[in-house]
Specification:
The chain is an alpha/beta fold. It is built from 13 helices and 13 strands. Helix 4 runs parallel beside helix 10.
Length: about 350
């Protein structure tokens, strides 16, 4: 029996998530991973690297709970929000029996995590405006244990109608978890559902330090949920999910000074997003610029594949969304610095339509 044959069948068939770094490229303008465009500086204060870290570092949990407006017992910290996705499926879904639901176009790790664990994926396509198709969701909820809703949605950039999420929470009460993925919530903080946890015991909120906190390289995410959910996730999480340096930097980033710095970065990105959006609307090869509540803009182009390759060859790396349902002709552009925006604008203006 070959090594390939020794592997689980579903893993042999699995297409891995194509992260920005896996896709590669030799660019100098990286606008494909929704990262903050410049580095932030931290100095390590913890030197006890000979000891294992706390499973759930107290300073990180308490600082994040204060920031998010929840109780410390409602917070779990993990290796990015991606680990939170996997923990929820592992804790709540029986392989070959239960299902997870998501609504494409959306973030690809929901399906990858479910398929890896042998859990059925139910994809209910979003409506034309990328809002939830509640009638079709209702028809397909039987056997679903976890429903993922990304809001603001990646890659489309819009907030999911909160009243629709409330309806979904009523539909799933006592039957399934509803997971609101709020990776980009710092760019539209008024839209958070963290304040709904008391009302809905089956609501879960995912957060991250990768975007507005400018710490994508730290790999630090959070799951906000009621204590009963957190207790179950603690049964399946790794013994030491955060290294000591990660916990050290995360705790610093979540001090009042760190949070103020994050909000200044958000204000900077929002100004840059408006500049880039306005400029894109005037470029001949651009068909449509979609409204965004995030640090990226979804854009539909004439001959998008040629545009993508042309910019790639010039060292400007965007994210191709053509293979996602309803996103034909679309590229996603992370909001970078003014200089990076200008590189994109000038390159696109030079394109022959």
């Amino acid at each position: 029996m070959s090594i390939e044959e020794l592997a689980r069948e579903n893993v042999r068939r699995l297409t891995p998530y194509q992260s920005a770094r896996r896709l590669g490229g030799n660019g100098d303008v990286w606008l494909n991973a929704n990262e903050f465009p410049t580095a932030v500086s931290f100095a390590l204060t913890q030197q006890t690297l000979n000891r294992y870290p706390e499973c759930q570092p107290k300073a990180v949990i308490e600082n994040y709970a204060r920031y998010a407006g929840v109780k410390p017992e409602q917070v779990l910290v993990s290796r990015g929000a991606d680990e939170g996705i996997e923990l929820l499926i592992r804790a709540f879904c029986e392989p070959d029996k239960d299902a997870v639901m998501y609504c494409q176009p959306t973030y690809g790790m929901y399906s990858v995590s479910a398929e890896t664990l042998g859990v059925e994926c139910r994809n209910v396509l979003s409506l034309e405006d990328w809002q939830l198709d509640l009638p079709t969701i209702t028809e397909n909820l039987d056997g679903v244990k976890v429903v993922f809703v990304c809001s603001p949605n990646n890659p489309t950039g819009q907030i999911i109608n909160p009243q629709d999420i409330r309806t979904l929470l009523e539909l799933t009460r006592g039957k399934a978890l509803v997971v609101a993925d709020e990776a980009y919530i710092e760019f539209c903080p008024q839209a958070t559902l963290a304040g709904w946890l008391e009302e809905y015991p089956h609501l879960v909120v995912l957060r991250t330090l990768s975007k507005a906190f400018a710490l994508a390289g730290l790999r630090c995410g959070f799951t906000l949920a009621n204590q009963e959910v957190i207790n179950l996730l603690m049964k399946v999480i790794a013994p030491y999910p955060l290294s000591t340096p990660v916990a050290d930097i995360a705790a610093q980033a979540l001090t009042p000074q760190g949070i103020n710095a994050m909000r200044e970065r958000v204000a900077q990105i929002l100004l840059e997003r408006q500049y880039l959006s306005n400029a894109l609307k005037e470029i001949p090869c651009v068909e449509q610029v979609f409204e965004s509540e995030t640090n990226y803009i979804l854009v539909r182009f004439t001959a998008s594949s040629a545009v993508f390759k042309s910019l790639w060859d010039q060292g400007i790396i965007l994210r191709d969304q053509n293979k996602q349902p309803s996103l034909s002709g679309c590229l996603r552009i992370t909001v970078g610095t003014r200089e990076e925006s200008q590189r994109v604008i000038d390159a696109l203006k030079a394109e022959k339509v």
